[in-house]
Design goal:
2 domains, alpha+beta, Jelly Rolls, eight-stranded antiparallel β-sheet
Length: 302
């Protein structure tokens, strides 16, 4: 009996090692809210929050369209936005960090208006803002971090401090890392702020496009009773033109490597969040060893 117990103990330990190798524990932040618009590719039914209860209501002529990833997305035409409420239990109020990420496909009329929001919660000086500004020559992240301020990523003029230039339309002579937003393809845009490091950043298609280093440890001041909107600032205010999909709101900052991994996922036709990985080589070796041990055990018992 003790021999059998010892064998089972060895087998269990080997299994633990294999599964620890195969499925690593991830510390990646979990969204507060996530709207994938996959309820349908048509119509204006509720935009269900896949994480919490911040469900969205389509306004004006905003409607569903086939998804940039998945079944559906939201189509905007300079008319209105999607009201996602003020945050259940105040969960759109952040202090230690923030990430807003989404997929966009800009429309032909993006830039006709001076300001076009992709996400905004207008609480005065405590607002949270992610928007195209000055006729889409700027992509801006606005937060109150020791006072309200905006990180402005310039579009077209190449004055950012990131890895590549971002253009609205193709100017010709593009560099290998440059991005053209209005090229008929989807693009991944992300803004982040991390209290611990003080890094405020905007990413485009997996690259750091522009950033600012603030004093580490400075908290965000945010929150209030105003409703947040995707694609506008209020019913009809500063509306976006184009398609928006896969909107995720976090109360922590994604790292640059996490942003890059999310972009790689959507390029593969998946959502941001990785599925269970295929077994690693080490795990396959472990499983092979367990199989061999079981085979030898059965032969000895014959």
């Amino acid at each position: 009996m003790s021999t059998q117990k010892n064998f089972l103990a060895i087998l269990l330990a080997a299994g633990v090692v294999c599964f620890a190798t195969t499925i690593p524990v991830s510390a990646e932040p979990v969204p507060v809210s996530y709207w994938n618009f996959d309820g349908s590719a048509i119509g204006t039914g509720t935009a269900f929050d896949q994480i919490d209860g911040n469900d969205g209501t389509f306004g004006g002529t905003v409607t569903r369209t086939p998804g940039l990833v998945g079944v559906g997305a939201a189509q905007f035409s300079h008319s209105n936005g999607i009201n996602v409420g003020s945050g259940t239990g105040g969960n759109f109020s952040v202090t230690d960090g923030l990430t807003i990420e989404m997929l966009i496909m800009p429309g032909a009329n993006l830039g006709d208006n001076r300001f076009e929001e992709v996400f905004r919660k207008e609480d005065g000086g405590n607002r949270i803002l992610f928007s195209f500004q000055e006729h889409s020559t700027i992509l801006s992240l606005g937060l109150n971090i020791g006072g309200y301020g905006e990180l402005d990523m310039r579009i077209d003029n190449g004055t950012n401090n990131g890895a590549h230039k971002v253009y609205l339309d193709d100017p010709g002579g593009l560099g290998p890392d440059d991005v053209v937003l209005r090229d008929g393809n989807m693009h991944h845009i992300v803004d982040t702020y991390d209290k611990a490091s003080g890094l405020k950043a905007i990413y485009v298609d997996g690259f750091l496009a522009h950033s600012q280093n603030l004093a580490p440890g400075t908290a965000v001041v945010s929150g209030g009773g105003t409703n947040a909107y995707i694609g506008a600032t209020n019913p009809g205010g500063e509306p976006f033109d184009g398609t928006i999909d896969e909107v995720a709101f976090y109360n922590a900052a994604l790292s640059g490597s996490e942003v890059a991994a999310h972009f790689a996922n959507v390029q593969a036709g998946q959502n941001y969040f990785t599925a269970i990985p295929e077994p690693s080589s080490a795990a396959l070796i472990c499983l092979g060893m367990i199989s061999l041990m079981l085979s030898r055990r059965r032969r000895r018992q014959r």
